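Students often ask what a holo structure prediction actually looks like on paper. The answer is less mysterious than it sounds. You provide the chain, you provide the ligand, and the output is a string of discrete structure tokens encoding the 3D arrangement of the protein together with adenosine-5'-triphosphate.
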Amino acid sequence: MASSKQLMAMIRSHAAGDDDRFLAIADHIATDASKAGHHRMAEELRTLVASVREASQERRPSSKPTPIAAPRGELASLVRVTFPETRLSDVVLSDDVEKRLRRIVREHRERNLLSESGLEPRRKVLLSGPPGTGKSMTAAALAGELGLPLFTILLDGVITKYMGETAAKLRIVFEAMQGARGVYFFDEVDALATRRGAENDIGEARRMLNSFLQFLDEDASTGLVLAATNHQELLDRAIFRRFEATIRYDLPPPDHVRRILAQRLPQFDLSKIEWESVTGAAKGLSQADIVAAADDAARDAVLEADGVLTEEALLRALGERAIPIR
Ligand SMILES: Nc1ncnc2c1ncn2[C@@H]1O[C@H](COP(=O)(O)OP(=O)(O)OP(=O)(O)O)[C@@H](O)[C@H]1O
Ligand SMILES: [Mg+2]
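The corresponding structure tokens follow.
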């Protein structure tokens, strides 16, 4: 029978809209039932999970992009479109950052009300912070919350070494933005808007920055424009004026480490974990490292410890993710 922990984890993943996790827990319950000799129930549960999984795959918008949003021609090499189902509740954030992001979502949901008073939602948001702290995940969550497609600008395709061509490609992207409402995500924007270019192409770097600034100024689309950077200090100051909010991401404090692990490992009993040593072992790791360590520990638990996740396994997994300080 399902344990109360498993039931709670299922309710939590239902509330977060995380179908994959919900079904993964159901799989676990089937395995437990089978081990306990309830083979018939295990079999029925497995069949049910498989059919729900199949039906939800068919329903997923990501497997069937709507024609209007599918970039064609040259645009296809400049922009990738996805339809994220991520929600803000999936991202472990400080209260302050979460509040700010929810306010932006609300402004977009209630943009008609704002417009009655001659106001507009904030549309340009800069996300800044170290790698693996949740910037790209936030872009997906904002798209998921607003039910909009996420257009990720492929800067490798946009930035070329030919004079003036980058501006032409940026124009294609910004023109597309006027046509399809969505969340437009300029990841690693420092590549486009750095203060100084490499010494030998400083002229082109400046031209690229200027055209980006100009397109941002002229942009009259109605979706969200997000930019992310690991190197805020490299960005040209003129960029900051164009963004209506800057949101700062950081490595996780101990309570976030615990929340991320608990969220990632709902199928395991974590009640005996001594959190202080676990969060200590996660010092210096990013949220992405912790998620990866959680998955490592889960694999070990299943393959080597009969599905029991020990503190030792967690400590080992976190230790293996740590980069030795030289
Ligand atoms: N705040 C968070 N809460 C929960 N999971 C997170 C968080 N941040 C990162 N993760 C996990 O790590 C993965 C990678 O994070 P993400 O791509 O959002 O990092 P990033 O800040 O965009 O990094 P980079 O600067 O390298 O692009 C996510 O898909 C998620 O599984
Ligand atoms: Mg990213």
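Residues 135-136, 187, 228 surround magnesium ion (ligand 2) (CB under 6 Å).
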